[in-house]
Design goal:
The chain has 365 residues and is of the alpha/beta class. The chain contains ten helices and 14 strands. Helix 3 runs parallel beside helix 4. The longest helix is centred in the middle third of the chain and has 13 residues.
């Protein structure tokens, strides 16, 4: 299963709106004879690649899959039936499929006499497939907020300069995160201050993510902005009531989508922005915006993962990583659970997940 998880991760950034899936096939004696992963939406699923590699040696063997084999006919046939046709005798999967259109593969296999076991390394498999699982369960993309800061939490100096807080190694690592995302999102403040490019560089074979700028007033992306250069697709989100003449220079180089303003405070409605991206097949968003946009997402409960690059430096003044999140007292703190700390060059990459409140216990009737 760990090998299957490694294979599944190869599909990150390339399979949306489908999940990433890895599969390993063992023959009747337990020897690995095939492996595969889902490489792109509309292409063969992981099981199909693995069965093709295994050939006749799959008969009587075991398929180890990171996600319950599908029982749905869409752009491809159901994997559960393909496993039956190949003569697989046992299936071990990690995560049950929550998609009502595709789930049921385990039941199909068991009804046909296949030994089926679920839940092996489920937490690890769910982490690899976090973007797709979030989209299925919540109906919106998974949001990873990434920022770079000094050890005292400053994302820029008092004069506004921020290049470069972190090292070249950390910046190269960010391109890996971009390559795993379907969309990279910044706000108007970052667009004005940095004129960011937002495309992936230095990652061989990477599919370019959708570059998204939340530009409420349509004033932060001028003609000639780097996000309009054609290196990757671009979407500029503006408020519904912005005059059309402000967006005329964008339409030849980017998609312009008009969204409602936030009900409270400045900016766009976060839920509407995420819904627009979800409708376009985006399942994984890398939020690279500044403190204000990050605060809006945090206030909306739309931050699913945090990746911080911390540089061994101190500034003592300047903007902090988060503002406007609606937090006024320590009891309202946005609590996180650290899942990984990794040195990246001279810096430290910290990955953390929000601590969600436990559901209330059911009342006895």
């Amino acid at each position: 299963m760990r090998r299957a998880l490694t294979l599944a991760a190869r599909g990150l950034g390339a399979t949306s709106p489908n999940p990433v899936v890895g599969c390993v096939v063992l023959d009747a004696h337990g020897t690995q004879v095939g492996e595969g992963w889902h490489r792109r939406a509309g292409g063969p699923h992981a099981e199909i690649h693995a069965l093709a590699a295994a050939g006749d040696r799959a008969r009587g063997g075991t398929a180890v899959v990171t996600l319950e084999p599908c029982a749905h006919t869409g752009r491809t046939g159901p994997c559960a039936q393909a496993l039956l046709d190949a003569g697989i005798a046992r299936v071990v999967y990690a995560v049950a499929d929550p998609n009502p259109l595709a789930r049921g593969g385990a039941e199909t296999l068991a009804a046909a006499g296949v030994s089926v076991t679920g839940g092996l390394l489920a937490d690890e498999a769910a982490a690899v497939n976090a973007a797709w699982l979030t989209a299925v369960r919540l109906g919106r993309p998974h949001v990873r907020w990434k920022y770079a800061a000094t050890l005292d939490g400053r994302v820029a100096a008092a004069d506004g300069t921020s290049r470069w807080i972190t090292s070249p190694e950390a910046r190269a690592d960010v391109h890996r995160l971009r390559a795993e995302a379907d969309a990279v999102l910044v706000g108007s403040g970052t667009a004005r201050a940095d004129d960011p490019h937002l495309a992936v560089r230095g990652v061989p074979g990477a599919r370019q993510p959708l570059r998204v700028v939340a530009d409420t007033e349509a004033r932060a992306v001028p003609a000639g902005a780097r996000v309009l250069d054609g290196a990757a697709p671009t979407l500029v989100a503006v408020a519904q009531d912005v005059p059309k003449d402000r967006t005329a220079h964008l339409t030849a180089h980017a998609e312009v989508v008009r969204l409602p303003r936030a009900a409270h405070g400045p900016g766009l409605d976060v839920a509407a922005l995420l819904a627009a991206l979800h409708d376009r097949g985006v399942r994984a968003v890398l939020l690279e915006g500044g403190p204000t946009l990050a605060g809006a997402f945090a206030a909306a409960g739309a931050v699913d993962e945090v990746t911080a690059y911390l540089a061994p430096a101190l500034l003592g003044a300047g903007p902090t990583a988060l503002t406007g999140a609606g937090i006024t007292t320590i009891t309202e703190a946005f609590r996180l659970r650290i899942t990984e700390t990794v040195p990246v060059g001279p810096d430290l990459r910290v990955t953390a997940l929000p601590v969600r409140p436990a559901p209330a216990p059911a009342k006895e009737i």
